[in-house]
């Protein structure tokens, strides 16, 4: 600020007042009863704002804008404060508009417009400057996190005024965080933290922190972090057949989940290597048997591991005979005990010791369950169909009986009227019934 220019403008001011004193002599009193009119303004940090001061009636008296520090900015069209950001937009006897560009938080405050009547009339306008929150930052992420870790994500944004709001989203779905606001100078530092107990379901999940603020109308500020969770593998075996039979094609898939991905998986049979690699083809996670043979019986195991652990699953293969359901064309079974699925199920269900973990029939038994359920369902469906047909026929016959009754109504009636009434009544009844038949 320039002292010299201030002195000059103070003189200007005095000069203006003197002029006014001289001019107001002999003028009607009501004229000088004018107040300058101003408006409170709000501007975003870095933006531009126009400050306008108007008077409805003015007898050539100067208007002046001064800043919160009481420094004169413009006196009429004369610039008083050397500040490139402050410019004159419009100056007349009835209006003085100045613009302030590149607004900073220190520009905030009460601005005064003065009209140099006698006495001086002033109006005050408050300029509010909004602090734009900085792009938020997320802290506290360990990459990768291990399953079971307790982590606290913290999102922080500085420079907001008024204090910004922070919102957390887990894959677009809002989740609640704990907010903390601290003032630092004129602006606020806002933090929001989120406690997570990570598990494998958090792997690949995106956590987003969004800033809500009045100064961010079009472009919302946000930060996103994608969780990477490492966890020990978990495998299971999926079989393409429920009841594997001799000669069939069987595919066993070793489904292994884990991060890092447990690759490759290892297949063994009965604790040793696969015996017949010509017919047992291992490709990626799959073990395929091109044509099942009863010698393939055994416990198959797939194992997968990463640096966090090892997991294995077992599948007990029992190759069933091709069913001999067509007696005339097939030779009688050579085995004294045919491996009938139903029979197997019966035996083992009643024997708890055999149902133990390594029972070679465990899986087959499971398959038998399915077969049995399938059979029962088929029978139930068949019986239901039969019932529907029988019922349909019965009802059709019943309907016929009604029609006969209707005719009878006429026979039983003592006179013609009653006969008609009876007939109609029966008829209505028959109609009602018909609806049910349909
Ligand atoms: C300020 O006023 C000028 C002239 O009236 C106008 O062109 C400009 O858009 C205004 N600026 C703001 C920020 O209102
Ligand atoms: C204001 O000043 C102008 C010349 O600057 C003059 O023509 C006009 O009459 C004056 N108006 C009043 C109301 O004094
Ligand atoms: C302008 O702002 C001041 C200070 O914040 C307040 O006291 C006054 O009521 C406001 N005036 C208007 C017209 O909003
Ligand atoms: C806020 O202030 C409190 C007390 O002054 C302090 O303990 C805390 O760490 C501060 N938090 C932030 C986010 O700065
Ligand atoms: C099963 O394997 C044995 C010996 O490896 C072989 O003799 C037999 O023909 C095979 N059975 C079928 C159905 O392929
Ligand atoms: C297949 O397994 C069943 C049951 O364990 C057994 O009775 C049968 O002898 C086995 N067959 C062969 C060829 O190993």
From TrEMBL:
Name of the featured protein: Ig-like domain-containing protein
Membrane-spanning intervals of the chain: 371-391
InterPro entries linked: CD80_C2-set (IPR013162), Ig-like_dom (IPR007110), Ig-like_dom_sf (IPR036179), Ig-like_fold (IPR013783), Ig/MHC_CS (IPR003006), Ig_sub (IPR003599), Ig_sub2 (IPR003598), Ig_V-set (IPR013106)
Residue ranges occupied by any Ig-like domain in the UniProt entry: 36-128, 136-228, 233-318
Signal sequence annotation: 1-24
Tagged with keyword Disulfide bond: yes
Homology family: Belongs to the nectin family.
Name of one Pfam family that matches: C2-set_2
Subcellular localization: Membrane
Disordered: region residues: 329-362
Keywords: Disulfide bond, Immunoglobulin domain, Membrane, Repeat, Signal, Transmembrane, Transmembrane helix
Membrane topology, as annotated: Single-pass type I membrane protein
Biased composition (Pro residues): 329-341
Keyword match Transmembrane: yes
GO cellular component labels: membrane
Feature: compositional bias, Polar residues: 344-358
